[in-house]
Amino acid sequence: xxxxxxEQYKELKVREIEQxxxxxxxxxxxxxxxxxxxxxNYQQAKLESLGLPHFDSVQNNFSFNKxxxxxxxxxxxxxxxxxxxxxxxxxxxxxxxxxGDSFGQSLSLELNPGTAVFVxxxxxxxxxxxxxNVTYTYLVNAHWSPExxxxxxNLFDPKVGIDWPITKDHAIVSDKDKNNPSxxxxxxxxx
Length: 191
Description:
The protein is mainly β. It has helices at 44-49, 175-178, and strands spanning 13-16, 24-27, 30-33, 36-39, 59-65, 71-76, 81-87, 90-96, 106-111, 115-119, 123-129, 134-140, 151-152.
């Protein structure tokens, strides 16, 4: 496994991804020394000045994943997310489930503590751990509750087209996520 190298992350950058409108990748500044590293994970004024949309977070969530191959998602909630890692590496995956021309478009990329993403509402989010003891964190701009309705799509649907490094037969997936519908069964979300 490649160890995280904070020396690679010295410039704050924000870039929007064409295939999923409103989706942004953020390269964070990470400062490290012999003790470890420090990063300013989310600083609203700096990120907005580089093009990230205005985002008022109301909740901060963490997911600790003990084993390699934990695979979660793909869930599209009615709120935005700013996602990053406190430790470890994941393959992040996203599928646009909003009504419109980009419905069904997918994207995947490796995330580590130096990379964050901004996910617009209606874009399904998922990930797979690439090393043990991953801490995945995300800010959201609406409160979670058991009554919240969201749309999900199956992680391993070939029409979604995510090339997971750990196959379905070896991934650690919840029963709920195993039963998510295929893309052809999803009703696009409208806002």
